[in-house]
């Protein structure tokens, strides 16, 4: 790591996990029902871009340690917002990116809940010893369905669809090498090249069909690539994964696997690979179960799962911040990666 992590005693507890009801037909830990055309999916229960901005501006007024920074614009001209907690530039810094794919919205819901929590006594002692950078809605155009192409046969009801790609129909998580899109350019020019970042968690969703040990996973984790990452940076990626795994797996709804979805082949345009390679950031990909809208039914998870998945994002972000702040991340054993099963696809 580029900075010496301070060792302090922290008070407070992470958000407690609750047991979620199992699906009637699934052997699973923490499942809501699959969509498969049988359940209403309504985007109106999710924050719109405008509602998110209003929330962030309200929190900035309430929280003395919070600063709201605009890091660029989307294709459609929406400001890209980053929440910054930086009391000491010499502290280790972690970056959280949410909703890089616009149909993966509970990463944003979790980010907003985490930001709200940072303004309370629950996180006392953290912000003095770690810097947090949070981008709660990276792909705002996709999140609003405001794009230059048709969105047909999508699952969700409500006043908008959510779509994976940006307004130019580009996958932003394949653009970190070429940097063709304004969203990518804003991130690299105004965040990655400006701040000395040590860790990053890229929060995503994957399809609802993935299993481990014959149970649907609540999510999957994946570090940077050992052949394209400096050894100490790769080790930090594995340690960051250990922090997240140890925080979530014991929960009644927690069931994590090793990621093995599309995009797992090395590509420097993917953030978990490119940011580790280009900026020496210890990166972790976290793919939670089920998207919130899609034209493919098997990708979508019923919205009754929103509660535990949002909580899962909060727990991951909170646990990472604590472990970096008190330096306990440096003692994390990474051998669990050797035995963590790779998720498998369950046929419907």
TrEMBL record:
It holds the Pfam family Peptidase_M14. It comes from the Bacteria. The keyword NADP does not apply. InterPro entries: CARBOXYPEPT_ZN_1 (IPR057246), Peptidase_M14 (IPR000834). PROSITE patterns: CARBOXYPEPT_ZN_1 (PS00132), PEPTIDASE_M14 (PS52035). SMART domains: Zn_pept. Residues 1-28 form the signal peptide. The active site is at residue 287. Residues 45-313 form the Peptidase M14 domain. Transmembrane segments: none annotated. Keywords: Hydrolase, Metal-binding, Metalloprotease, Protease, Signal, Zinc. Its cofactor is Zn(2+). PANTHER family: PROTEASE FAMILY M14 CARBOXYPEPTIDASE A,B, SLL0236 PROTEIN. Belongs to the peptidase M14 family. This is Peptidase M14 domain-containing protein. It comes from Thalassobacillus devorans.
